[in-house]
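From the methods appendix. Each design record in this collection lists the tokenized structure first, followed by the designed amino acid sequence. Records were kept in a plain field format so they could be parsed without special tools. The example shown here is representative of the layout used throughout.

RECORD:
FOLD TOKENS (105 positions):
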């Protein structure tokens, strides 16, 4: 991948992370619950939520999606998020991330 492709890839991962935080917020989950359900350290969730982590690991994003009842796949330059066999969102590269909000407990 070229540096431009790398930037787009990580930008899309951030868009997915934003969406995962939104779903967790809609379910009224705290950072701690999301960390516990995803099998991740609370500090990892804190850093993702505050955007201190600029390049999230794909496996971390997959674990977060699994925790909220979905999954994330990277297929032909697109991220596909699905839950219960239905495609929920498809992101093509170059989509801007949104600010994350999740209640801290």
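DESIGN:
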């Amino acid at each position: 991948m070229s540096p431009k492709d790398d930037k787009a890839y990580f930008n899309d991962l951030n868009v997915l992370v934003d969406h995962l935080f939104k779903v967790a917020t809609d379910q009224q989950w705290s950072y701690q619950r999301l960390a516990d359900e995803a099998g991740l350290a609370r500090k990892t969730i804190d850093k993702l939520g505050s955007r201190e982590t600029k390049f999230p690991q794909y496996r971390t994003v997959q674990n977060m999606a699994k925790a909220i009842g979905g999954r994330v796949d990277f297929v032909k330059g697109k991220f596909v998020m699905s839950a219960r066999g239905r495609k929920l969102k498809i992101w093509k590269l170059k989509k801007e991330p949104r600010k994350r909000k999740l209640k801290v407990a």
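APPENDIX NOTE: The CA atoms of residues 74 and 80 lie 6 Å apart.
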